[in-house]
């Protein structure tokens, strides 16, 4: 029988997950069906349990349900626990396992696909929301010499620094970034979704090798434009992260890791 998987979010019309997982299933020869479910805003848990009880094997979870999925899980893997959020569930009997592949997907895209090593690098991470929480452990495991957080509400970044308590991890306010230099600058704010620019000074890009925008499919966002104008040689958006986190979930569910490169190339919108 064909195994059932789904992504749940609200709204969900924009999702690329059925196409991505459909491609993975085809290229790896796995017999799965993957659909998109618009979860009711006041009925997330009911929708997940109904899917599971009808034979569903696993789900991806997207906005605004990543925290509720975390609460619903019976067993949380370390990455989900540290992020306080989950983007993938696996159903086994009456257990609901939760993991979070966003951070590892981002690191895989930067280090493997874009060929930029984070070891010994000075990394600036803008934002302090769910994506940043999920990225901190995978980023720190790459052993950067410094990982600096900067967020519009600085206390959120300061809280994360306290919680993760790692010698390489610090936070600065946006205005304290003047005169600071970094090898990699990552925009994990949602500013680009509204075509806004986080208040980051252009100096942070002076010696940067890579500017990475988590939002995807938006072309040259204000953040990427600032980086380009400052002469950053390599620009990327989050399409690679999206495909890489999907590949991690697919491997977790099916025990087979799909190849990602051709799909990322096919989905990439030129950053011009
Ligand atoms: P959250 O809502 O959890 O956090 C939003 C963050 O953005 C906060 O730190 C917030 O700051 C900051 N922010 C919002 N607007 C502005 C602004 N105008 N200027 C400066 N900072 C701002 O979002 P997520 O962490 O879940 O997502 C962040 C981004 O990452 C989104 O663009 C999302 O689409 C993208 N994403 C991409 C993925 C991929 O696979 N490529 C996966 C997951 C996320 P404050 O705390 O001060 O309000």
Descriptive tags:
272 residues, binds NADPH dihydro-nicotinamide-adenine-dinucleotide phosphate, Rossmann fold, 10 helices, 37% helix, six-stranded parallel β-sheet, 2 domains, alpha/beta, six-stranded mixed β-sheet
What does this structure look like?
The protein folds into two domains: 3-100 and 240-267, Leucine Dehydrogenase, chain A, domain 1 (Rossmann fold, 3-Layer(aba) Sandwich); 103-237, Rossmann fold (3-Layer(aba) Sandwich), CATH 3.40.50.720. A hairpin with a 2-residue loop joins strand 5 (88-92) and strand 6. The chain contains ten helices and twelve strands. By secondary structure, the chain is an alpha/beta fold. It has helices at 17-28, 44-53, 66-72, 78-83, 102-113, 130-140, 154-164, 222-229, 239-254, 261-267, and strands at 3-9, 32-38, 56-61, 75-76, 88-92, 95-99, 122-126, 146-150, 169-171, 184-187, 210-213, 234-237. The model has no long low-confidence stretch (mean pLDDT 97). The strands form two sheets. It has a six-stranded mixed sheet, with helices on both faces. The site of NADPH dihydro-nicotinamide-adenine-dinucleotide phosphate has 26 residues, from helix 6 and helix 9. Residues 102, 127-132, 151-153, 156, 188-193, 196, 198, 214-216, 238, 241-242, 245 line the site of NADPH dihydro-nicotinamide-adenine-dinucleotide phosphate.
């Amino acid at each position: 029988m064909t195994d059932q998987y789904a992504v749940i979010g609200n709204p969900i019309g924009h999702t690329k997950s059925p196409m991505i997982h459909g491609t993975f299933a085809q290229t790896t020869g796995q017999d799965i069906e993957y659909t998109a479910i618009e979860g009711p805003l006041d009925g997330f848990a009911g929708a997940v349990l109904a899917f599971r009880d009808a034979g569903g094997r696993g789900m991806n979870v997207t906005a605004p349900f990543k925290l509720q999925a975390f609460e619903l899980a019976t067993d949380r893997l370390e990455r989900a626990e540290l992020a306080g959020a989950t983007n993938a569930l696996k159903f086994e009997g009456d257990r609901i396992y939760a993991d979070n592949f966003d951070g590892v997907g981002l690191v895989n895209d930067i280090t493997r696909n874009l060929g930029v090593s984070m070891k010994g690098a000075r990394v600036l991470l803008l934002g302090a929301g769910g994506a940043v929480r999920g990225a901190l452990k995978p980023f720190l495991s790459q052993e950067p010499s410094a990982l600096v957080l900067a967020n519009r509400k600085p206390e959120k970044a300061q809280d994360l620094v306290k919680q993760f308590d790692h010698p390489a991890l610090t936070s600065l306010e946006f205005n304290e970034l003047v005169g600071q230099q970094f090898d990699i600058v990552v925009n994990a704010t949602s500013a680009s979704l509204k075509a806004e620019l986080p208040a980051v000074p252009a100096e942070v890009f002076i010696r940067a090798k890579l500017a990475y925008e988590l939002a995807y499919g938006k072309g040259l966002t204000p953040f990427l434009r600032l980086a380009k104008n400052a002469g950053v040689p390599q620009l990327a958006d989050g399409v690679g992260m999206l495909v890489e986190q999907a590949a991690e979930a697919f491997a977790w569910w099916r025990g087979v890791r799909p190849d990602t490169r051709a799909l990322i190339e096919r989905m990439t919108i030129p950053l011009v």
